[in-house]
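Sample pair:
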Amino acid sequence: MIGRNDPCWCGSGKKYKKCHLQSDSVKFNKPATHEYKNKMIKTPEEIAGMRRAGAFNGELMDYIRPYIKAGISTEEINTLVHDYTVKHGHTPASLGYHNFPKSVCTSINDVVCHGIPSEKAVLKEGDIVNIDVTTIVDGLHGDSSETFLIGEVPEDACNLVKIAARAMLKGVEAVGPGKHLRIIAQTIQPFVESGGCSVVHQYTGHGVGRKFHEHFTVCHHITPDCENITLLPGMTFTIEPMINLGNYKVITDSKDHWTVRTKDGSLSAQFEHTLLITETGVEALTRTPSQIASGTLLNLPFEE
């Protein structure tokens, strides 16, 4: 449960009471009516657009993949992401979103999310880093992230990344038409905790489409505040559990008001896809070309 004075889950940097509290209160205390559900369901034209946005987002992730190695600064990663996106006629969604200053989030080691690229932040052997890219293609958003291992990493870090990857996969496998939104949390949290890790409560997945953050919140932890929503064909949203090696609690940097770290200094990892509920199941819109070719949802940075 997010407190009134905590940072809002959407990453705006504002206090929850000044941002999404009012709209969330309406959603949490009101059943998902037919009218409300219709607002969540994309038109055929929007679904086609979401597929295009997801496809480019996946292409961008594959493009950046070979550069994520020791010796590169996160500012260089930002430049690569920005230039590739703009060159193809699209827009980096993060840049300027609630005044976020960069085109990608780069979250190293104990940074949970919203890490700001910097020339001073240079990846080194043994690091783990989450690269979170969101792109706008013809007015629609594709949003995905992966955690990369930089060279040889400690065993506990590798295990954390494995658990984070599998947690996201389990969430995707759990959803489908007619399933309740809460099944995501009910699937992910027990799995993560069985591995000795924790699920961040304060940051969640979300509806996505013409807006970066739309209509409903996707909790990855079990909570009575999970919205009263049955998943229906045409809904698009992200599953993106943030998994900590230690406690689930996090803190936000008091200077930049963006960088979120684990409160206990433990490592954190995350994987994310943008998903579409179809008539028969679920489609990962942001699968990368390499993932499509191999028939997987993830480029796992470790041996199974």
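Residues 26-36 have pLDDT under 50 and may be disordered.
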